[in-house]
């Protein structure tokens, strides 16, 4: 049979050594996974079961690129995150085995149309228009776990135009990376190529055209993004 239209190209995430590319299959995101951020969003930071939302793989943007201020919003927010890439998966993965499925780590941004997200939340509707849209998932280079080891701690910091807006430690995650993988595998059959954005610290806020965003996580390559005028 012939295809009805041209197959879209694979979305490839470059490794830090420049020698490999990681095909992104799915992007899963964890909501409110730092206690201080949960509080600033008006929610209880207790360890309720984690919840998830998704982004299209095509929302990926490499570091050093620019992102246009998106349509439909007047409140465009940054959220700095540790991103975990999976080398394998399966169903019902025990927490004790979760680290075996980690391919590596990167620095990420969950860019958010906050006004659309909050309106959807208040109306009990899905968050898709607030979270899952074009160029909403910038990522720094992927560092393989063979280089970094397992990351359970380390500084995470975001700056806008040189001013610190978010700062925390990865050990402040409500749900650890291993716990996140285990929980997610109870809802989906995970597989190589899936990536997980693990949540953002407190301090989220808006950006405007012309703003430069820099995100740093210990042991990982920085993520730099420029916000441009709407297309």
Give an account of the 3D structure.
- With 231 residues, the protein is of the alpha+beta class.
- The chain is built from five helices and 18 strands.
- Strand 1 (12-14) and strand 2 form a beta hairpin.
- The longest helix has 9 residues, at 114-122.
Radius of gyration: 17 Å
Q: In terms of per-residue confidence, which ranges show pLDDT below 50 for 5 or more consecutive residues? A: none
Task: Count all strands and give the number.
Answer: 18
Question: What can be said about the biggest beta sheet?
Answer: 6 strands, mixed
Which descriptor suits the 3D outline?
A: globular
Q: Estimate what percentage of residues fall within beta strands.
A: 25-35%
Could you give the distance between the termini?
38 Å
Strand/helix succession: EEEHEEEEEEEHHEEHEEHEEEE
How many helices does DSSP assign? 5
Instruction: Please tell me the overall pLDDT.
Output: 94
Strand order of the largest sheet: 4-3-15-8-9-12
Structural class: alpha+beta
State the helicity in percent bands. 10-25%
């Amino acid at each position: 049979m012939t295809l009805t239209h041209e197959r879209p190209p694979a979305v490839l995430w470059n490794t830090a050594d420049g020698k490999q590319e990681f095909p992104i299959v799915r992007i899963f995101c964890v909501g409110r996974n730092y206690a201080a951020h949960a509080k600033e969003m008006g929610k209880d930071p207790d360890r309720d079961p984690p919840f998830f939302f998704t982004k299209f793989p095509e929302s990926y943007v490499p570091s050093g690129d620019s992102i246009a201020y998106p349509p439909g919003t007047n409140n465009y927010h940054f959220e700095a995150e540790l991103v975990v890439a999976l080398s394998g998966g399966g169903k019902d993965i025990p927490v004790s085995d979760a680290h075996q499925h980690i391919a590596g780590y990167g620095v990420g941004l969950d860019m958010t149309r906050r006004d659309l997200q909050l309106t959807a939340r208040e109306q009990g509707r899905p968050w898709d228009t607030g979270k899952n849209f074009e160029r909403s998932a910038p990522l720094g280079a992927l560092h393989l776990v063979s280089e970094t080891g397992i990351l359970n701690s380390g500084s995470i910091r975001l700056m806008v135009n040189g001013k610190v807006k978010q700062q925390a430690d990865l050990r402040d995650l409500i749900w650890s990376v291993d716990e996140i993988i285990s929980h997610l595998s109870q809802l989906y059959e995970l597989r190589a190529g899936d990536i997980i954005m693990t949540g953002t610290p407190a301090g989220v806020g808006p950006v405007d055209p012309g703003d430069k965003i820099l995100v740093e996580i210990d042991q990982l390559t920085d993520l730099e993004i420029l916000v441009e005028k709407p297309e």
